[in-house]
Amino acid sequence: MARNRWLKLLNSLGLExxxxxxxxxxxxxxxxxxxxxxxxxYTYGTTAQIHADSKHxxxxxxxxxxxxxxxxxxxxxxLTEVKVYTADSxxxxxxxxxxxxxxAQVDAAIAQAVGLPITAIKQLIRYRLEN
Length: 131
Fold this sequence. Notes:
This protein has 131 residues and is an alpha+beta fold. It is built from 5 helices and 4 strands; from the N terminus they run H-H-H-E-E-E-H-H-E. Strands 3-2-1-4 form a 4-stranded mixed β-sheet. The chain is elongated.
C-alpha cells in the first residue's frame, strides 16, 4: 500500500523521468573523460627533429607601419628588451632582445632589425631604465 503511494507520488511529480538523467550524465562524463585521456596521452612518432637551440634571422620583405617602440634597458643583465607595435592587421607586435645598453647602440640595433632609419626610430622610441 505504501509502495503504491510512492509510485503515484513519483508519477505525479514526473520523477520517473528525471531520476535517470543524473546517471546518464555521469555515464557520459566518465566515458568522455576516458576517451579524452586516451587521445591526449597517445604519442605520435615524428621523422623530422626540431632544433630549438638555433636562432634565425628574419628579414621582412614588406615594410610594416611602426606606431611606437618601447625599450626596456636592463643595465645589470646588459641587455635591452624591445617591443615594436605596428599598425598591421596581422602583425601587431614584435619583440626583440639586444645585448646592448647604450641608447645609440639600441637605436642602431632596432633600425637594423626593423629596417627603418635611425631618425624615425628616435621619433618613435620610449626608453625605460631598470636597475
